[in-house]
Amino acid sequence: MKLGQEWYRREEVASRYDQRFTHGGKVLNREEIEKLLELVDPENKRVLDIATGTGRFAEAMEASGGRVTGLDASMEMLKPGRADYLVGDALDLPFKDKAFDITTSMRFLHLLRPKQVPEFLKEVERVTKDKFVFESLNPMSLRATYQWYLPQRSYLFRTSHLKEIIEDLDFVEEVEYDSHFLVPYGAYQVMPYGFAKRLNKIDKNIVDFLSPFASTVYWELHF
Fold first, then answer.
1. pLDDT per residue over 167-188, tens digit each?
2. What is the CA angle 29-35-36, rounded to 5?
3. 152 Cβ neighbours under 8 A, 6+ residues apart
4. CB under 8 Å to 28, separation ≥6 — which residues?
5. Which of 51, 89, 133, 142 is the most exposed place for a label (fewest CB within 10 A)?
């Protein structure tokens, strides 16, 4: 995780981060937010968004009626002037027990290694009353073709491996997961908008038939 933290603390990385959601990235952004709101009903809920970054997921949940606190390890990524966006460590959350109804964390788990996952989930459970929604990246997907290139040195979790880790935790009462995106994030970000929109329509129609090869898996843990 330290490499990822160092990467996102670079001012040049933080200042350009939202550029990935222009052009074809607009399609990716829309799909990610729609999927999150499908899993999370934030209305009148206290929500913690871990690795909130520039706040696009937090703002979407706020627009749907949630009272959202965003936490990120990188001060450079956080939007200035937001009192409810905090700098903090995901493995040592600076909140009281059961302070939130729901916790979310998008685009973060890949910065952890397997031995850190139980520690992270235990800390999430400590501050969360109801459930945790997050996503993981699949090494059996096309994402693996450019994984070596990324500076964060992400870890891609096989769904079966991550499920085993989670099911060994006695505080998790229920586990649900769903596959999405045959075409990985990076491809959408470099496509023209019109092409990305057409491709995503095909992607959504066939991903259920090819779910073992989907690039992203969305998880919903009930405590």
1. 999 999 999 999 999 999 999 9
2. 90
3. 3, 4, 7, 110, 111
4. 20, 21, 185, 188, 189, 196
5. 89
User: Once rounded to an integer, what is the mean pLDDT over residues 140-151?
Assistant: 87
Domain spans in the chain, listed from the N-terminal domain onward: 2-222
Q: Tell me the torsion sign for CA atoms 31, 185, 219, 93.
A: negative
37, 106 contact by CB (below 8 A): no
Number of Cβ atoms within 10 Å of the Cβ of 140: 13
- Between CA 94 and CA 127 the distance in angstroms is 9
Q: How many Cβ atoms from other residues are within 10 Å of residue 217's Cβ?
A: 23
- Which fold is adopted by the domain 2-222? Rossmann fold (3.40.50)
Phi, psi of 176 (to 5 degrees): -130, 145
Which tokens sit at 139? 């090494």
